[in-house]
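Entry 14: structure prediction run for RUN and FYVE domain containing 3. Input pasted below.
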Amino acid sequence: MNMAKLSIKGLIESALNLGRTLDSDYAPLQQFFVVMEHCLKHGLKSKKTFLGQNKSFWGPLELVEKLTPEAGEITASVKDLPGLKTPLGRGRAWLRLALMQKKLSDYMKTIINRKDLLSEFYEPNALMMEEEGAVIAGLLVGLNVIDANLCMKGEDLDSQVGVIDFSMYLKDGAHGSKSTEGDGQITAILDQKNYVEELNRHLSASVNNLQAKVDALEKSNTKLTEELAVANNRIITLQEELERVKEEGSYLVESNRKDVEKELEVQIGMKQEMELSMKMLEKDICEKHDALVELRQQLDEMRILNHELSIKSQSSEASGKQKSDIISRLEEKTNQMGHIIKQQCKNCSGVFCENCMANELPLPSSINPEHLCDACYSQLMQQYASSPS
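Run finished. Output tokens:
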């Protein structure tokens, strides 16, 4: 805490005496960054990584972007710097950019006021968690009178060793004891003047910001009033349309109700007709079913009769075939007998035989029965015996 006070006071005094823009090689400025680095590291929680434990104040500084959107420019610039590889280097670059922007005090106050967020990174007894942190943030306001132009492209911020040079402050203390009382008064007046000017600048900036917010709120209020009036008109219009729609809906409901009643009556009539038609159809189906059953019975009887006729026909064909065979055999036998008779008739004169075969009866008187063969004679006797005359 004391080193921070000495560092900030010494930097302001030396910068005012120098009267020019400070650069990266200015020793008091370098020592100021070293002291701020030690303040930010005090009570910092260790985070275990793959390479071991790591303590970096880059994490708390990244919170500023979430709490103050205008700090996003610094964070983006730090991430875009090509030479930075470690969180420690990014934190050092952030401090330098915030000092050049003359916003370091504002940003520190922002994160110190949010101890609920800082508790994730710091122990309860850390400098940033105690009242001393707010004191340091207040002392940083005086640095806004300093103009710094720092080039970080060629500077190795990752591997710098932050060691506080106490001899610088011891020399300052000895020189201060030898200085005259008048110089001390002048310095005190200048410090007060610069502090008041810086405080006035902050108040003016705050007033401007508040005025801008008031203007924005007035514009927003005017816009909201206009939108409210438009919304009220729209509500009135919608209410009128709603009433009209209700009236139209009532008319349509009544009209639809009548149409539905008529349609219902028609549907009931059609249903009754359909039920009557169904009953007639069922009756017709029953009658046709009975007729079909009767036809099936007749068909079965016809099949049985046809089967019997087929059997009888087959029997008749077999009997006819047997009779044909018998007739054929009889004809064959008759032919054979006729042939035999012809052979036998050759022994007689032949006259009687021809007349006998022609059934020319009685015999002519010129024929002598003794001249006939036995067969002709026997046939002649049979014919005479059977003849009624």
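Notes: The beta strands are 47-49, 52-54. Will compare against the previous run tomorrow.
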